[in-house]
Amino acid sequence: MKKTLCLIGLLLMTRIQVPAAVPETVFDVKAVLSTPLNPRTLTSTETNGIVTEEVMFHSEMDGEKNVEIFALFSYPKGARGLPAFVWNQGGLARASTYFPEIGARRGYAVLCIDFPMPGYRSTGGYHISSGLDLTDDPRQAPIYHGAVALLKAVSYLESRPEVNRDRIGMAGSSWGGFYTTLMAGLDPRLKAGSAMFGTGSLQLGNRWWDGKAWDEKRDAAFRERWRTTLDPAWRLQNVQTPMGWFTGTNDSFYWMPALMQSHEMAAGPKHLSLLPNWDHGLTGSVDEQVFAWLDVHLKGQPAFLRVTPIRLVKQGSETIARWSFQGAREAVSAEVILSYGDAGNWPRRYWITIPAQLKDDACTVKLPACDTPYFISGTVIDKDEFRYSTPLLRVAPTDFIPGERKAIIAYDGCAMWGGFEENQVRYVQAHGWACPAISQDAKEGRQSAQLQGGGKTAGKTILPPIFFTAGVPHRFVCHLKGAKPVQVTVEIGGNFDGKPVAERKEFSIGTAWTEISLDFTPPPVLSTDLRATITLLDGATVLADAVSFRPNAKR
Questions:
Q1: Helix, strand or coil for residue 341?
Q2: What is the homologous superfamily of the domain 307-320+328-404 according to CATH?
Q3: What are the distances in angstroms from CA 402 to CA 14, 151, 317, 370, 406?
Q4: Tell me: domain 422-551, CATH 2.60.120.260, correct?
Q5: The dihedral formed by the CA atoms of 464, 468, 474 and 478, expressed in degrees to the nearest 10
Q6: Pair 154, 187: CB distance under 8 Å
């Protein structure tokens, strides 16, 4: 494992070396597009000036199997020659009207397909979203058939009078972002791609293969074959299609090394928005930026700001991070996000935000001298709260004068949710995590969490994920208050590369706010999900507030 972490870390130490391109051996795009489309409209409805049609079209003949694609197509009533995009659903869920109608209200014609998966309205029955499968013949892998369906989806848009065939793009979330990245490199007709999560270069690590530790069954030879066949990234170096990625730094599925290499490989205009301490969710402003990227390249809206890679500059005994930006949009602030520790633990690293000085299209930050390596990214933020991020850069202890090196800056790995305030509850809900009931009786702020016992059985409340620096001792602190005196059990732990590690302790809680604490050192591993669990007996009710997880200064 240590060797694996070092290899992945090396990719981020300096500018990534992009693997050489290989000839296309999987997709015969010309042959796929030459087959009859056979489009037909099944139903058509109109609501508030937006027309939505249920349509079908032919995708491919897989041996004797005739694969037909069902889709929803939305556009403003009376539209002709509009810019258009294909929307790819998160999780490759069944097509819904939500995003097509949002796009139509923005002045687009939008198509959303049912991928040819079991139980869907499309035929084919391929288990596409079950994992990153790679068969001996890549053209028999489920992912291949999803890409063919999207090639024909673009053909369908080209066939419609509502669409300007020279202004077609693609966007999607999660699995939809995976396919958007793939198709941006594969389909020469696309004029822009916008991925809300999802990337390529997944041979460098991903949840499907490596979520319980680096998967040794998928050895170097397997990963290289994946890279040059079905992976979304490697074709990007051969095209000029504008491609944007919008994601949290802690995405559980698509890890930072994969995203960084995919971004590096893109030869055309490209954009990166990193949201610190966000997993598989985004703020409203970054959600909007996903579609604003399409507006730039399909509607001719003002271009995004362009940022240069971050670099380190010596000023006396200080080390300064510096980057610059260009563009007409109004920049209002800048910051560096910083995460302690070497490569690994990508889903649960904590990211500190340090404000930067912004002057004359340049940004600077004095970096903390430290005795441990860390990763940084620079970000410029405009008046619309759009984010423009630089690729990650690894900062080593040797970048500082030895006498200046210090321990890591204190932070709180529960800061995103630990007070249960309104904005923190929204953060939890945006990720789809379970949130306890809320009480207005608070130790700090205005709200706390109300935890309920389970009657005859123990009532367990699992709190949201905790962020941390691997290998560093931390202290978990929580304030509890009972409706009556009660015993509670607090456990902090998780699976670390598939192995359970936890600390557990019992506490007596009274009717006044009581501080409890528990020390825990998260092991240095590739993948984990650290959480705290509070267990109550006998149907008790306990309030929890001011939850924190900080590096232990006494270490």
A1: coil
A2: Immunoglobulins (2.60.40.10)
A3: 22, 56, 10, 9, 9
A4: yes
A5: -20
A6: yes
- Decide if 112 contacts 86 (C-beta within 8 A): yes
Q: What is the pLDDT of residues 383-398, one digit of tens each?
A: 999 999 999 999 999 9
Q: Which CATH number describes the domain made up of 2-19+38-300?
A: 3.40.50.1820
Residues 6+ apart with CB under 8 A from 296: 192, 242, 302, 303, 304
∠ CA 257-524-469, nearest 5°, is 80
Average pLDDT over residues 55-84: 98
Reported as a single tens digit per residue, the pLDDT across 274-311 is: 999 999 999 999 999 999 999 999 999 999 999 999 99
DSSP H helices in 84-241 = 98-105, 142-159, 175-186, 207-210, 220-227
Q: Three-class SS of residue 112?
A: strand
Per-domain residue ranges for the chain?
Answer: 2-19+38-300, 307-320+328-404, 422-551
Of 338-352, 398-412, 519-533, minimum mean pLDDT range: 398-412
The contacts of residue 343 (CB under 8 Å, 6+ apart) are 5, 6, 8, 9, 11, 12, 257
Q: Decide: helix, strand or coil at residue 501.
A: strand
